[in-house]
Amino acid sequence: MPLQIHPNKDLATRLHHKDPEKFTDDNHKPEIAAALGKFGVFGGWKSNNDIESLFNTLERLKKFLPDQHVPFDNETLKRTCQSILEASDEVIRETQEKLGKLPEESFGNQSYILDLSLVCKASTLRRTPGISSPFCNAPITITLNLLQPANY
Hints:
Helices cover about 40% and strands about 10% of the residues. About 15% of the residues are buried. It is globular. The protein has helices at about 10-20, 50-55, 75-85, 90-100, 110-125, 135-140, and strands at about 40-45, 140-145. It has a two-stranded antiparallel ribbon with strand order 1-2. It has 2 domains: about 1-30, no CATH class; about 45-135, no CATH class. It contains 6 helices and 2 strands. The protein is mainly alpha-helical. Helix 4 (about 90-100) packs antiparallel against helix 5 (about 110-125).
C-alpha cells in the first residue's frame, strides 16, 4: 500500500493520472496539525497479530480478507486494505453500522475503534462518490497515539 503524501492538489492529480495503480487518490494529503488540547493521531501500522485478531474476531470484517486460510503477513494486510478501499459505498456503510452495534468487549483492548467509527462514518457521509473513505481502515490497521499538548 503506497504512502501518499502530496503537498498540493495539482501534484496529487498529476501523480494519479501518471500512475493510478500506485497513486490511487487524486486528492492532496496535508498532514499538519497544531494541538491545543489532548488529541489522537494515527501513525504506524499495528502489528499484524493485532490486525489479524480483529479480522478473525469480528465477523463483519472477514469479508475483506483475501483468504482466511493464509498467514496474516504484509501481503495479506496490503490485499485486505485494498479490498476495503475498493468496497462499494453500500458495503462500507453496512459494515460501519454493524460494527457500531457490537458491544465494546468485542474489540478487546482496541475498543476505541467504536468511538473512531463515528468520525469515520461522518467522513463517509461527506465524501465524494467513488472515492473510498478511510472507513475503519485507519482505526483497525493503524496505531492510535494519544498525545498531550506541548508546553510552550
